Amino acid sequence: xxxxxxxxxxxxxxxxxxxxxxxxxxxIFSKPKEAADFKAxxxxxxxxxxxxxxxxxxxxxxxxxxxFDEADDFSKEIQxxxxxxxxxxxxxxxxxxxxxxxxxxxxxSQLIKANGDDIRWMRxxxxxxxSMQEGMAEIMAQTVESRDENTGGHVTRxxxxxxxxxxxxxxxxxxxxxxxxxxTMAAPLHDIGKIAVRDxxxxxxxxxxxxxxxxxxxxxxxxxxxxxxxxxxxxxHSYLKYAYDIALNHHERFDGKGYPNGKKGEEIPFWAxxxxxxxxxxxxxxxxxxxxxxxxxxxxxxxxxxxxxQFDPEVLEAFDNCKDYLL
Length: 327
Description:
The chain is α/β, with parallel strands linked by helices. The protein folds into two domains: about 1-120, Rossmann fold (3-Layer(aba) Sandwich), CATH 3.40.50.2300; about 150-325, Hypothetical protein af1432 (Orthogonal Bundle). The chain is about 55% helix and about 10% strand. It is built from 14 helices and five strands. The protein has a five-stranded parallel sheet. Helix 6 crosses helix 14 (about 315-320) and helix 7 (about 175-185) crosses helix 11. The radius of gyration is 32 Å and the shape is elongated.
């Protein structure tokens, strides 16, 4: 039997109300200052507008709420409905009519519950779809990397390293933790544009010709174009904004002599300036088919020689603080 939670300072006044609905509904009585058992109820009923104000909004959105009174007071009905009442009942009333009205409320309650279950189900599906789509983006990045025998593990390492470097700026307040999480999620896509670079160039073990170098240097812009297409398809993926900025700008230089657009200083998005350091560091310390990776110390020497020219000095200061935590 469905339960009506009746909230009143004087619940004993409403025994006749209870009798009218007996056999179809069971009453749970609660006083305004008591902890009410909303979970057990299908319908809420109360006799004072002030009681409605105290009912949690989550419960008012989940359960039909009846305001009842001994006088047919239009102004009080307006007040009650403004506070969230679903129905207004003036007592005394006809039993058959009252049962009919409460039957409608019961159907509303069941519909709300069903919709709530559907909403929870849809949210779960949406979370799974977002996770799958984000996973697919990372798989795309790893697929690009698998074509390039020079960069095994680069995608995973740079995502880890940018998280470590970014922590320095979370501590200083320049980044929020949520921003850093999105940046870390975006990092694997920084070289996604290499999917448009020919294997003969990507896998070439020796020096590139001028034309080959130009094609290789096109990968930031091509990557940004690809991520733009992903953004149009998956608008809710906020990490793609960071992925776009990083893919397009991680080869720009602080002195304006980078590519593809020759941006300078703070024209370069901050997260791209983080990736610029991390990308070069990993390239220096990692093995390539044409050379062994250099020592961390030698890599640090090269990177710090690029202060104010290739790299942002603020980023290099943070890199210096956390470099011992990098592989």
